Amino acid sequence: MVSPLRGTMPPDDLMIRIGVSPESFPTREAREDFYNDAGRALYECVRGAVPHEDGQAILDFGCGTGRALRWFATEPDLRIAGCDIFAPSIEWMKSSFDPAIRLYVDDAMPPLPEADDSFDLIYCGSVFSHLTAWAPWVLELRRVLKPGGALVASLHGRGFWNIGLHGSRGVPWDEDGTGLLVEYYGAKFEDSWGPAVYVSEWWVREHWGRALDIERFEPTGFAQPDNLETGQAWVVARKPRDTTPLTPADLESPSTDPREAVAALRGQRLAYEEVETLLLGQSEHARGLEAQAADLARRLGVVESSKSWALTKPLRSLAQQVRAR
Ligand SMILES: C[S@@+](CC[C@H](N)C(=O)[O-])C[C@H]1O[C@@H](n2cnc3c(N)ncnc32)[C@H](O)[C@@H]1O
Fold this sequence. Notes:
- This protein is an alpha/beta fold.
- It has helices at residues 12-15, 28-49, 69-72, 87-96, 134-144, 158-161, 165-168, 201-207, 248-252, 258-304, 307-311, 313-324, and strands at 57-61, 79-84, 102-105, 119-124, 145-155, 180-183, 196-199, 213-224, 227-238.
- It has a single domain (12-265), classed as Vaccinia Virus protein VP39 (Rossmann fold, 3-Layer(aba) Sandwich), CATH 3.40.50.150.
- The termini are far apart.
- S-adenosylmethionine is lined by residues 17-18, 42, 61-64, 67-68, 83-86, 89, 106, 108, 125-127, 130-131, 189, 193.
C-alpha cells in the first residue's frame, strides 16, 4: 500500500523554520526522523485530548509545512484546513498534499476567511509560543470554533524556559512572576522563530479563561521524548455554548491577582536585562572579530616573511601581468 504520508517531508529550507537544521541534524535521514517523530508526538497529543469523530472539521492554525497535519491526513472522513502567514510553506504544501485539504495564506492579524462556528477542533503547534498578538487571535479562533469546539495550543512554559534567553543565562523559572513574558520582542517570523512568549498556568487560566473554558493545562505536555521535564506546555480550551462579545483589551487587562503586578515588574526588569545581554553579546562579537582580524594579519606577516614567499615573488608578478592584460 502507498503510504498516505509519501511526499510530505518538506525541503531543508522549510524544515529549518521549525529548528530542524543541518547544524543540529547533519544527515537528511536524521532530519526526516526528527521531523516525523516530533510531528507525530504533536498529533498524538492533540488526538489524546480530542479524539477522532467522523466528519470533524479541523483547522491547523500556523500549520507551517504540516508537520502534524500530515498525520491528521491519514485519518478518514475529516474536513481539514491549514493556514500560515508564510507563503512558501503553503505553496509547498499545496504541491504535496491531497487537494481536498484546504490550504491558504492568512494575514498576520485577524480575520480569517472562515465563517463563524466552523470548526470542531483547532490546533496550533508552536504558534502561540511566538505570538505577541495573542488576544486578537484567541478571540478570532473562538469566533470560528463551533460552540463546544476545542482549541488545543502549545505554549512556552516552564519546560522551555531553560532553553530560552533568560533561562540559559541562569535566571530560574518563576511561576508566579512570569504571567506573560516575551523574549526577542519584535523579532520577525520571516528570518527567525519570531518572539518567544512564555506564560504561567495561572495567567492562561485568568486571561484566556475570559474567552474560553479552560479544560486542561499541561505544563510540559509536549515533552521531548527523551526528557519529560522539557518541552512546551499545552492548553485545551473549549468555546462556551454562550459567548459574550469581548475585545482584545478585555482579555489583556490585568486582574486584581497580586501576581499580575509582580509579573509585570519582573517582565520589565528582564526586558532591560535582555537588551543589556544582547548589547554585551554584540560587543563580545565585535571583540571576537577584532581578534580574528589581528590573528589573520599576524599569519599573513608570517607568510610574507617566509622563504617560499620570497622565492615565489616572480611568479606572483607574472600572474599580475597576465591578469592585467
Ligand atoms: C514554529 S512554527 C510551527 C509550524 C507548525 N505548526 C509545526 O508545528 O510544525 C510557527 C508557525 O506559525 C506561523 N505563524 C505565525 N504567526 C501566524 C499567524 N498570525 N497566522 C498564521 N500563522 C502564523 C509561522 O509562519 C510559522 O510557520
